[in-house]
Specification:
This protein is mainly α and 109 residues long. It contains five helices and two strands, in the order H-H-H-H-E-E-H. Strands 1-2 form a two-stranded antiparallel ribbon. Strand 1 and strand 2 form a beta hairpin. The radius of gyration is 21 Å and the shape is elongated. The N and C termini lie far apart (69 Å).
Length: 109
């Protein structure tokens, strides 16, 4: 039974996150992507394939070359998952800030 990779598995790897950052700046060929890493082209190709399978990268043929483009829409899954946690932590930091301000004003008295 073949398991389908998801966005979270794809971005769990630091090399794949680095590839996404590179391609987000502009479309790149696999060779250009690989030049940015101290790894074999085969290893980078495997990472690109995983990102492509998860729809984080879109592949387009342009003449004889294949270009990879970042798909920001797919990152919405990650954003939607993280958003409630971000709001929770912001609220906690706001509470901490209020306590610290109270403490500071008491210590000045």
């Amino acid at each position: 039974m073949e398991t389908r990779r998801d966005v979270f598995q794809a971005i769990a790897d630091p090399t794949r996150r680095a590839i996404l950052s590179l391609v987000a700046a502009g479309a790149m060929t696999p060779g250009t992507i690989a030049e940015n890493f101290d790894a074999t082209r085969q290893t980078i190709s495997r990472h690109i394939r995983i990102l492509n399978e998860c729809d984080l990268l879109e592949q387009k043929q342009q003449g004889r070359e294949i270009l990879y483009y970042f798909n920001p829409d797919k990152m919405k899954e990650v954003s939607d998952f993280i958003e409630p946690f971000r709001k929770m932590w912001e609220a906690r930091f706001d509470q901490l800030e209020a306590v610290m301000k109270q403490y500071q004003s008491k210590s000045k008295s």
